[in-house]
Amino acid sequence: MDIRRTVNEPTRSAGPYSRFQMRALAVTSAVLSVVIIVWGLILAAQGDSRGGKAVAIGVAVVLVLVVAIPYGVRKGRL
């Protein structure tokens, strides 16, 4: 009896979502946070008070991703 795992067999359960879906969510979140930061910087350069708030939101999302992505990789979900 061969007990070796196949290439496509997951080593751990990722819950109701596949690894592809989880990775797509992480990449989408990262791209959108960069867009929000750039948009906020443009608004701030034009003197709009909403620019600083947008930059703060973008930075907060980046900080969450910096913690969440390595955690997901360690847990076998990404």
Structure characterization notes:
The chain crosses the membrane at residues 20-42, 54-73. This protein has 78 residues and is mostly helical. It has one domain (19-74). 67% of the residues lie in helices and 0% in strands. The protein has helices spanning 19-45, 50-74. The mean pLDDT is 84.
Helix-strand layout with pairing:
Elements: H1 19-45, H2 50-74
Helix pairs in contact: 1-2
Defining key terms:
78 residues, membrane, mainly alpha, transmembrane, transmembrane helix
Helix content: 55-70%
Radius of gyration over C-alpha positions, nearest whole angstrom: 18 Å
Secondary-structure element sequence? HH
Structural class: mainly alpha
User: Which residues sit in consecutive blocks of at least 5 with pLDDT less than 50?
Assistant: none
Number of continuous helical runs: 2
Keywords: Membrane, Transmembrane, Transmembrane helix
